[in-house]
Amino acid sequence: MxxxxxxxxxxxxxxxxxxxGTIAENEWWLADHCVSAYGVGAVVxxxxxHRENLWDLSSAxxxxxxxxxxxxxxxxxxxxxxxxxYVGLWVDQPPYHVHFVVQPRYPGKAELGLKGLELQVFRSLxxxxxxxxxxxxxGKLKQYLQSQQPQT
Length: 152
Prior knowledge:
Blueprint (H helix, E strand, L loop, with lengths): L6 H6 L9 E4 L3 E5 L9 E5 L11 H22 L3 E5 L10 E7 L10 H9 L6 H17 L5
Antiparallel strand pairs: 1-2, 2-3, 3-5, 4-5
């Protein structure tokens, strides 16, 4: 069941577009660029079904989550040159929808030397990246992930 007031559900239904479109997906999870102010290359990994809590996930959703987050984090590191990749779950605004924000920290980036939670808070006070920046980062991530697929 989808929730009509949920941004994650709206993007999944195509009612709200995300620059760069879908980066990766499997049967249970979808990744696209974060439209909030968490920086260029920040990716949202969201459940395809409206789930409010981790304990609401099916066994299949849970089993596929770890490998999916691993693929997305590696892509952010390899394709975008992040020196660290943070994964956060902050589902604290209704309507709740399980989603992870996977954020890069780039080497030499002038963000006051901040790391971890402090960097996330600092970024959240800024502006979101431009649609062009989001689309370019999403394109690099898609290209990297496609290059990792076994050739048939």
